[in-house]
TrEMBL record:
<dbReference type="InterPro" id="IPR010678">
    <property type="entry name" value="UTP25"/>
</dbReference>
<dbReference type="GO" id="GO:0009303">
    <property type="term" value="P:rRNA transcription"/>
</dbReference>
<feature type="region of interest" description="Disordered">
    <location>
        <begin position="1"/>
        <end position="76"/>
    </location>
</feature>
<dbReference type="GO" id="GO:0009553">
    <property type="term" value="P:embryo sac development"/>
</dbReference>
<keyword id="KW-0539">Nucleus</keyword>
<dbReference type="InterPro" id="IPR053940">
    <property type="entry name" value="UTP25_NTPase-like"/>
</dbReference>
<dbReference type="GO" id="GO:0019843">
    <property type="term" value="F:rRNA binding"/>
</dbReference>
<feature type="region of interest" description="Disordered">
    <location>
        <begin position="96"/>
        <end position="139"/>
    </location>
</feature>
<dbReference type="Pfam" id="PF06862">
    <property type="entry name" value="Utp25_C"/>
</dbReference>
<dbReference type="GO" id="GO:0034511">
    <property type="term" value="F:U3 snoRNA binding"/>
</dbReference>
<feature type="region of interest" description="Disordered">
    <location>
        <begin position="392"/>
        <end position="424"/>
    </location>
</feature>
<feature type="domain" description="UTP25 C-terminal">
    <location>
        <begin position="580"/>
        <end position="757"/>
    </location>
</feature>
<comment type="similarity">
    <text>Belongs to the UTP25 family.</text>
</comment>
<dbReference type="InterPro" id="IPR053939">
    <property type="entry name" value="UTP25_C"/>
</dbReference>
<dbReference type="Pfam" id="PF22916">
    <property type="entry name" value="UTP25_NTPase-like"/>
</dbReference>
<dbReference type="GO" id="GO:0000462">
    <property type="term" value="P:maturation of SSU-rRNA from tricistronic rRNA transcript (SSU-rRNA, 5.8S rRNA, LSU-rRNA)"/>
</dbReference>
<feature type="domain" description="UTP25 NTP hydrolase-like">
    <location>
        <begin position="281"/>
        <end position="569"/>
    </location>
</feature>
Amino acid sequence: MGKQGFARKQGFKRLSKAETLSKEENLKRNRRANDDKFTPSSSQSDDSGDLLEERKDVASEDEESGKIVYREPSMYDNLLKTLGSRNETVANALRRRQIEGKSDTDEDVVGDIESSSESEEQHDGSGNDKGSPWSNTFVKGLKGSEMVDGMELSEDVVTDDDGLSETDEESDVRLNCQSISEASVITSTFANHLDYKLSKEEIDHLLIRKWSYSWKTPAFNMSKTYWRGTGVCPVEDLDLDSHYGVKPRLYKHWLDMYDASKGSEFHKSKQRLFFSICNSYQDIMHHNKKPFYLKGQEEDSSIMDAYLVHSLNHILKSKDLMTKNERKLAKNQDIVEDKILNGSAYLDRGFTRPKVLILLPLAGIARRIITRLIQLTPSKNKADVENIGRFNEEYGSGSTEDQYEEDDSEKSKSKKSTKPSDFQALLGRDNNNDHFMIGIKFTKKSMRLYSDFYSSDMIVASPLGLYTKIGKAEDGKEEDVDYLSSIEILIIDHADVMIMQNWSHVKTVVEHLNQIPSKQHGTDIMRIRPWYLDGQSRYYRQTIILGSHLNPDINTLFNQQCFNYQGKVKLECSYKGVLPKIMLQVRQIYERFDTTSILEADDDRLEYFAKKVFPKIKDSVQPGVMIFISSYFEFVRLRNFLKSQGASFCLFGEYTKQKDISSVRGQFFRGEKKIMLYTERAHFYYRYKIRGVQNLIIYSLPERKEFYPEIVSFLEESDNMNCTVLFSRLDYLRLERIVGSAAAKRMVNSEKGIFVFA
């Protein structure tokens, strides 16, 4: 199974949360800026407002009339004050900010239309001096050539290839397609999202975690399914003649790729509609995506294309903005310091370069995503895809569209596996590695795979891969994980598969995003957006969670760890259930047990089993009793209970060694062991056909609805064809996926406690 078992082990010691920064600690950190580095910051607490620097603006009508007012300095002002002790010009500018009470000027640099005759300027940059003093960093930043991408520079960064501003040709395309006013409109979602300044009242409201879903619209090509969201609906009143806010070159390439796939009516397609939701920069939870390995190739690819184009668009626009600012500053060297300090137009970067993080569970899925990313990248930006040979060697080079389709040749039939086709597509061959990380860097003419994380624009990783890096950093074995400090788009795809691994890894990764870094990493501090310095970056991060079904852990992450000020969009759907897919005439008896809270649910389930179900098993002489269990923790509790009762049983869980599996299956089939405990994750990772099942007891319903018919089919050799299922009202999400939404509502609300399906 490769490294997949490692992902499921619970042996890791859970990383402890550090204490939150107090206001006094923030002030101390600012004073220590003279020592040329940040003081390491700790994790931000989700429920505490103490981590936020209070920014009281006491300006009232007097400020509007031009009177001198006092404004309490922000963290950004404190950093300027530190720099001012070494630079007279900086000090003068800071004094003007404080006395005049002048607010930063909002300038939409991205929306500016440069004339088509403007030539591409070259910037000559020398190597970066890592860990240089803040004052030296500022001086370098004034030169307009050292800090092109707001990150630690190396020789390969400061080149012509790194200038990603629009070319003359692209500018002509834009001017020919629409007016200047229209161009400003289509770029507004990117600029408006990042330029918005949150007030303390808005932050306090976000921390309450109460979201009002005010609109509802039908989901494209999905019956009884709706998108619900806060704020304004992003898929209504769209201008079909616009580029939807996409860079013209990228938009044209996207259309070409769509036409090549023989798609029709692009403006009404699923991927265009989902892109519009992504482009709203709201947090998104799509929990009914049909995965590619269940013959949902078209739907899965549409969603994938949409979020990849959104990510590319965000990266390219960010780089364009920084490049344009570098040009403007280079042309006005005499007033560079004053322009930076007295306006917000040149605050265009975060602490580090990476802006997009894509979390994926398995290397086979990562191969599919990255290959498609390469295809969607405009040709001009991928004239050279560096390290593609290494990528194909490590991740495979199969076709993203055809590699999962069955080969009907005689050769393939002779070697046909007994595993289901969806298992082969997801976990077969070399797909099951769950420990990987890869950085991707975009330049003007090339795309570099395996770039250093600090020089990458996008990071594609597994939760386990990042979890290991975080653990090493905490133990002092690795320098740091500060490249996670400036993530502006987080995409968690195939979250349902991550549930089958170890969801705590995902939680740990999300908790470590958007923290103030421990080191400078060569960033020009004068160009960092103020909300980064004020510890507010998590309120600007867009999180997109995609999966085939909803789970309480996924729901909790979306509701408790996603604080995007733009709001949320989520899917609301009804399920038909999977009972019609059961081909056998099995009598399925659903027994509901009562529980008062989620904390007592496990105890109540075990108590009901011990009093109502186990006595029947104990009194029966019939062997072949399989007990299916969803959770490993329930597996352990039930194992201990059976031991205490002296029962004859065998274990088949996710940690059962490969060499012992055949022995366990044989003992159960021959009747040497009366009971088998079988877990959902064991079924997910092995998918063996278990023979000898005479009586099936589903102790807890499976997370994955497609497993239910497979488990029930184990009764095909049984004489009585009976299946007992235990559930509570808290199991509603799983129950509706199996019996259907309408039946599930009746079952959890009915006064009766026993329901029979035949």
